[in-house]
Amino acid sequence: MAFLSLFRIGLLYLAASNLLLAHAAPTAPIQGQLLLPDGSDLNTTRITLNDGEQTTYTRPDGTFTFYHVPPGVHLLDVQSQFYHFSQVKVQLLEESMDAPKCIEYAFPGAPKTVAPYPILLTAHAKYEYFEKQQGFAFSSILKNPMMLMMIFSVGLMFVMPMMMDNLDPEDKERMQKQMEMQSDPQKMLSELMGGLTGAPAQAPVKKASGKSRKSRRD
């Protein structure tokens, strides 16, 4: 009797297992490969599905596989530190688990394109974490304000004598007076005040020496 009861329990367990397997959701693998533009070997790279729900790594030849993926829309991301790969959306339908539909996005916001299956992704670019040092450029000198002022001053030193030679004697004399006034701020200020008041500019009074005072007393 005990043997028959154990046999019946085993049959019930097998029937229940088969029933659960029949009603369980089907699963399928997702396969693909990563490539570099120059055809060189790619280091082992981490790939995630649905922001880390499933994780796998590439093989030495760049191929990868996710096992037991249920139906639905899955987001595939390549977590590479050196190269930028596209993002892929994979759609698995229960009626066509062996032929998933793939949509590729080169970068966030880019127009979508249909990708083949198995997934084949080629790196778009290599990440540059450091800015390359630029060499010496003559144009950078011309962008410096101090250098421009110095070049202008040197050019003015050569041009001014030529301009003075071409001026009339009266204009030359007037320009020389202006230059003398600019070199003597006190004289320029007195000239300016005289022009505002209408009075002629007074010449600076010189102090009498000690000998002249004695001659006046005598």
Describe it.
One of its GO terms (molecular function) is carbohydrate binding. Its main location: membrane. Residues 40-149 form the ER membrane protein complex subunit 7 beta-sandwich domain. It is found in: Membrane. The protein has helices spanning 2-23, 138-142, 145-165, 169-183, 185-197, 210-217, and strands at residues 28-35, 46-49, 54-57, 63-69, 72-79, 83-84, 87-93, 96-105, 113-115, 119-122, 125-126. The chain is α+β, with helices and mostly antiparallel strands. Among the domains are: 23-126, Sandwich (Immunoglobulin-like), CATH 2.60.40; 132-177, no CATH class. The strands form 3 sheets. Strands 3-2-5-7-8-9 form a 6-stranded antiparallel sheet, with no helix packed on it. Strand 8 and strand 9 form a beta hairpin. Helix 4 (169-183) crosses helix 5. The protein is rod-shaped, with a radius of gyration of 46 Å. The chain starts with a helix and ends with a helix.
Say what the CATH topology of the domain at 23-126 is: Immunoglobulin-like
Elements, N to C (H/E): HEEEEEEEEEEEHHHHH
The CATH superfamily of the domain at 23-126 is Carboxypeptidase-like, regulatory domain
Described by the principal axes of the CA atoms, the overall outline is rod-shaped
Which class of the domain at 23-126 in CATH terms? Mainly Beta
Low-pLDDT ranges: none
Q: Which CATH architecture of the domain at 23-126 would you pick?
A: Sandwich
Q: Whole-number radius of gyration?
A: 46 Å
Broad structural category: alpha+beta
